[in-house]
Amino acid sequence: MKNILLGILASVAVFLVSCTNSKAETTQITNAQFKTGDIVPHDQVCMVNNAYMGKKQLEVKHDGKTYYGCCENCKLRIPQEENARMAYDPISHKLIDKATAIIAISDKNDNVVYFENKANYEAFFKK
Question: What does UniProt give as the signal peptide span (predicted)?
Fold first, then answer.
């Protein structure tokens, strides 16, 4: 029983250990610069958390491409986890590389969505 409890606690601790950057820190910047539907700069997106952060993020080079993360944990995860580098375009449903995607804010919480091209971005937001 003790081992099970320790295992559960360890799993919870791993789950809770995440980035140290708080989106609350960037809310004022975010709201002033971009809104839902706007295309945002790659270097201001945490590609692990899929969130617009409102300021330059940590650069991570992998396989000749540049990705961005908000903390040291993200820097470790980007090379190791495909979902930190890849996303599905919501229009074409194709798996695309976040390093080359068009990135736009998808909601009021500064989450982002990735597109393989401008036409898909425009179709998604009906621009």
Answer: 1-24
